[in-house]
Prior knowledge:
Elements: E1 5-10, H1 14-24, E2 29-35, H2 46-50, E3 60-61, E4 75-78, H3 84-96, E5 100-103, H4 116-129, E6 132-135, H5 146-151, E7 157-168, H6 174-180, H7 186-195, H8 204-215, E8 221-230, E9 235-237, E10 240-242, E11 247-258, E12 261-271, E13 282-290, E14 293-297, H9 303-313, H10 315-320, E15 324-326, H11 340-343
Parallel strand pairs: 1-2, 1-4, 2-3, 4-5, 5-6, 6-15, 7-12
Antiparallel strand pairs: 7-13, 8-11, 9-10, 11-12, 13-14
The structure holds nicotinamide-adenine-dinucleotide.
Nicotinamide-adenine-dinucleotide is lined by residues 11-16, 35-38, 79-82, 90, 104, 106, 137-141, 307.
Amino acid sequence: MNQPIRVLQWGLGAMGSGMARLMLEKSGLQIVAAVDARPDYVGRDLGEVLGVGKKLGVIVTDHPETVLDSNKVDLTVIATTSWTERQMPDLRKIITAGINVISIAEEMADPAAQHPELAKELDGLAKQHGVSVLGTGVNPGYVLDLLVVALTGGCHSVERIEASRVNDLSPYGPTVMETQGVGTTPEVFRKGVAEGTIVGHVGFPESIQLISDALGLGVDRIVQTREPIISKVYRETPHVKVEPGMVAGCAHTGVGYRGDTEVIRLVHPQQIHPHLENQDTGDYINIYGVPEIHMAIKPEYAGGKATIGIAVNMIPHVVAATPGLKRMIDLPVPAALMGETAYSRRV
Length: 347
Ligand code: NAD
């Protein structure tokens, strides 16, 4: 095998620490630096922070400028926030240091969908410094966009797409409960949606834009709705209690129109303990065209695992890509990194 790809892991939360652990299993990848703002992580060996039972000789720092050296780092994986605007200062530092970057910020899956000026800046900076920038993750970045696009690969024509991801929010912490409105009353839920404190899923404009651009469906308007999932039964997690009549989750829908015609509908009902009302979880992709396609993954493609996996599996493609801002539809298909040829596929 050629020299391993040298990676800086920026953000060691639930996703970032999982990515770092997975990278340790991959012979073609080597973690050479780690950044996180948490005071209880800074100054400690990464192996200790990850709990892998051995030191790795990498000290976690909150001063990224001390490790952003393109002679020592080929690519940074950043897992810190959902929002492009909030990540821009860090992305600028990484790119201007001449280092490739993969972000799992939901909006980075297609930053042009909501922030065309930031997308232009990222693309320009990346080209100027000879690096590539990719946003990915399970959703957006994979299940409700790339997988949909790939399924149309044998179609002669596509009139309309409808895809849904039905999942269980029970494993998540207090932030997710609040942003999904779990444990509120329907009135508080509607007020939260109107005020922007209850956001539901982040990523529909990005996923719809990716599908529309890949197929040439010409979506020119995206409408999102967020409805409360009102529980008929008592439900409880370590972080929230839901009495009958209260909100167990958020049914979020994003619809892409070309003129007055609906062409893409993405549906993402997320709730705690869906099985208590006999709701199975799963991913469902329906393509109405020639031929018509109906695909189901049951239960759903596990979100945390898939985000960790896809971010790591895309590393060789991003290192090999031409400079600029990339989306999942611009790069080779992701595949699990299981052996030498996976690191040297032609791009
Ligand atoms: P988390 O809160 O567990 O971890 C975030 C970590 O980043 C924390 O350790 C925090 O200290 C650190 N951090 C935050 N800002 C920083 C900065 N500027 N510099 C250094 N460190 C910083 O979150 P998580 O579950 O790991 O997820 C990370 C982000 O990825 C979230 O916004 C989440 O919504 C997003 N995400 C996206 C997808 C997707 O499908 N695209 C999937 C999962 C998570």
